[in-house]
Amino acid sequence: MGHEIKSVWRALVVGPVSIAVAVALSACGSTPAPGSAGQPTSPATTSTSPVETTTATTAPSAMLTGIPVYWIADSRKSFSLYREFRDVPDVGGPIASAVSAMTSLKPLDPDYMTPWRAASRVTVSQKGDAITVDLSRDAFSNTQVGSELADRAVQQLVYTATAAALKAGTPATTVKITADGAAIDVWGVIQIGAPMQRTPMSAVQAHIWVTSPQEGEDLPAGTATFKGFGTSFEANFLWEVRNQSGAMVAKGYAMGGTGDGGFGEFTFTAKLSAGTYSVTVSTDDASGGAEGAGPAVDNKTFTVH
User: Among 204, 239, 271, where does a domain finish?
Assistant: First the structure.
């Protein structure tokens, strides 16, 4: 018998008071299969033991730190996936908490968005390397979702759930999404209910992420270290740092990835005094803008103190 983990989170509204009930159930068995690799390393977190059952009658008080949550943004005339590490309420373990946060939280970066609506119930079960995520239908209540955005939204959930599973030490390769237990058409354009894998990064993920600092982060004065993840022509990324008035204070190049479509991490440093800054990193465009969709760009605003 396979290893199965099940967690349920439901938000109940009584007058003005929201009550969240978190239940984690599990059954023991074989070890899950290895999950997908290739993403930058995530920070450590604390999760509920798979054999522990908990019930909360008030809003969750425990927090999980560094939980991977994926968002969507316009990039190169298309929709692409971006990721933030967030501290989120523990509503039944890392996977349920990550998916719940994906539907209900706002991204830190104002350039990111989500087409999902807050789910009043999230049920997650895992057997081996297969995850099932059952959402209440209110999660699909956004009426302004076209076919391309719907496809990205499904992959947003698949990437979020599998990243959270990997972080929890229970890696998974497939995710089945259902609505109130049913396989249905959602947003009028896409069918859910069958197991899905991650679409290759090159097809759905932004070609450049600034992973550190995150939007709004505070850094100590001195030499600031910047980190990113992506793929670029000849593995070359262009970066610049500007102060609050828009003046450029540092710029340069960073190397990362494989140069032939492979994704990888990169890092660079800049010496900064106290103030508010923005860092912008872009992929190298061999055509100089004459061909294709142009360079991919990501930026973050941060403070040095």
Answer: 204
* Claim to verify: residue 277 and residue 175 sit in the same structural domain: no
Three-state DSSP at 9 gives strand
Same domain? 217 vs 298: yes
142 and 45 within one domain: yes
Q: Are residues 150 and 280 in the same domain?
A: no
CB-CB contact of 155 with 198 (8 Å)? yes
Alpha carbon distances (Å) from 114 to 47, 257, 272: 25, 27, 33
Other Cβ atoms within 10 Å of 68 Cβ, number: 26
Mean pLDDT (whole number) for 30-45: 44
The rounded distance, in Å, linking the Cα atoms of 43 and 41 is 7
Q: Are 73 and 100 in contact (CB under 8 A)?
A: no
> Which DSSP letter does residue 78 get?
E
Written as six digits, the tokens of 84 are: 């933030």
pTM of structure: 0.82
Which of 46-60, 83-97, 175-189 shows the lowest mean pLDDT across its residues? 46-60
Residues 223 and 143 both lie in one domain: no
The model's pLDDT over 71-104, given as tens digits with 9 standing for 90+, comes to: 999 987 899 999 999 999 999 999 999 999 999 9
Task: Kindly tell me if the per-residue pLDDT of 116 is higher than 60.
Answer: yes
Comparing C-alpha atoms, which of 205, 183, 82 is closest to residue 137?
A: 183
Backbone Cα Rg of the chain: 20
Kindly give, in sequence order, each residue whose CB lies less than 8 Å from that of residue 174, ignoring residues fewer than 6 positions away. 129, 130, 131, 195, 196, 197
Q: How many domains does the chain have?
A: 2
Per the structure, the complete domain to which residue 81 belongs is given by 4-204
Q: Which residues contact 51 (CB under 8 A, 6 or more apart)?
A: 26, 28
Domain boundary among 144, 172, 204: 204
pLDDT of residue 86: 98
For residues 200 and 212, membership in a common domain is answered with no
